[in-house]
Amino acid sequence: MQEARERTDALFRLLPPNSFYDRPIPERHRLIFYLGHLEAFDWNLLSGALDLAPHDTEFDKLFAFGIDPVGGGLPTDEPNDWPSIAQVEEYNRLGRQRLDDRLHGFQALRSSVPALADGTLLHVAIEHRLMHAETLAYLLHNLPVERKVCSAGIFADPRPAPRQRRVTIPAGIVTLGQSRNGARTFGWDNEFETQDIEVPSFSVDVFPVTNAEYLKFVHAGGYEDAKHWKAEDWEWRQRERIEHPQFWVRRSSPPVADADTQWEYRTMFGAIPLPLSWPVYVSHAEASAFARWAGRKLPTEAQWHRAAYGAPDGTERAYPWGDASPDETHGNFHHQRWDAAPVDAHPAGASGFGVFDLLGNGWEWTSSVFGPLPGFEPFSFYPGYSANFFDGKHFVMKGGSARTDACMLRRAFRNWFQPHYPYVYSTFRCVED
Are 265 and 155 in contact (CB under 8 A)? Predict the structure, then answer.
């Protein structure tokens, strides 16, 4: 818990006081909300089980819930609608102190609440905070450079993109999810129960689609041709005037004749020439349009799982590379970098079928609509965590990004987002039956 707190505390230190009331992404809360939300969530989740009396019911409610960017319109609150930074920090300090006093006193082990006694609630608190460490990273990424404290240098990456190639994945059975009985690791409710799926043979890109590959789609007029887009995606693209990936910036000066150098890339702390070897970050709508333009498609969750965790001998691995715990040789994850890395930078992380860059460096879109696995049971203490998003409007993402903590690289973990949200560290690769 303390390590997770240190992760998020460090992110807030990147904000000067006058930036806390900024809203870097129109669909999301102002940053001041997240300062209070993490502690309010922990308090609302744990205080009852630890038999703690309320200390600020107004803030407990104010900071309880974020915003799902689907529907409901954009938020209209003003900065003066929120409490001061000092008030929120005092709320946080007192909440942490009271929770920690009980936790250090082993109150949790003596609790009559099974989900506290067996550690489930603490895992929920920790992983929820670490998920928000990633959410905060892409919020800060969208904040103008002059509105944050730069903590790293800006370095161009001129390495060329590797030549894309495909491998054939033989037919096999994949097991999605994990078993509730005898589960040795924590899992969110949508990770249970298991589902065996027979996956026919298919081919898959060895690497995620790079900025270099996606540049061909842009140059070919992919954003101007409706035939590559679903009707609802095309309407979104037109309405929002989406003409290129969110992380790309067209160079305004000096004029350049070379089409490959007319773009820059927004890293966390400044712009660099478009890094052609990095994975492209796009929305599901944009990824689907590219795949349709290329005459291919996005993988299903089961296909992605088969390419990532399957092995030539018919078994399934804990991680693409085997059963060894994740480390920095296997991929770009666990807060190592603020930005992506070349898609071929971690050969030690390749799967048994030779597929690269599956964990870290960017969540990967699938074509599977987010829904329950057979035997799904919502958490009694957080019934809406997954079920609220079983609405046919969200798609499963697998893998992880540079800002994904290693604890969430387990095989059963599932992420999800709606298709018209371009701010996430999300990439993709294509498949063909």
Answer: no
Write down the domain spans for the chain: 2-147, 177-210+279-433, 211-273
d(CA 303, CA 305): 5
* DSSP string across 266-293: EETTEEEE--TTSBP---HHHHHHHHHH
Euclidean distance between CA atoms 116 and 109, whole angstroms: 8
- 230 token code pair: 């679903």
Q: Give dist(CA 348, CA 430) in Å, integer.
A: 22
- Note the residue count of the chain: 433
CA distance 298 to 342: 21
Domain 177-210+279-433 annotated CATH 3.40.640.10 = no
Q: May I ask the CATH architecture of the domain 2-147?
A: Up-down Bundle (1.20)
Name 73's Cβ contacts closer than 8 Å, sequence gap at least 6.
Answer: none
How far is Cα 337 from Cα 116, in angstroms, rounded to an integer? 34
Instruction: Please state at what angle helix 31-46 crosses helix 85-104, rounded to 10 degrees.
Output: 30
In this chain, the answer to whether the domains covering 2-147 and 177-210+279-433 adopt an identical fold is: no
Weakly modelled stretches of the chain, pLDDT under 70: 67-72, 106-108, 182-183, 253-261
The span from the CA of 203 to the CA of 299, in Å, is 10
Distance (Å, whole) CA 148 – CA 269: 8
With tokens 């927004």, the residue in question is: 266
Which pLDDT value is given to residue 152?
Answer: 83
Burial class (CB in 10 A: 0-12, 13-18, 19+), 75: middle
- Name the DSSP letter for residue 208: P
Is residue 24 within 8 A of residue 140, CB to CB? The reply is yes
Identify the pLDDT of residue 182: 65
Q: Taking the CB of residue 142, how many other CB atoms lie within 10 A of it? A: 19
| Residue partners of 205: CB distance under 8 A and separation at least 6 | 164, 165, 166, 355, 429, 430, 431
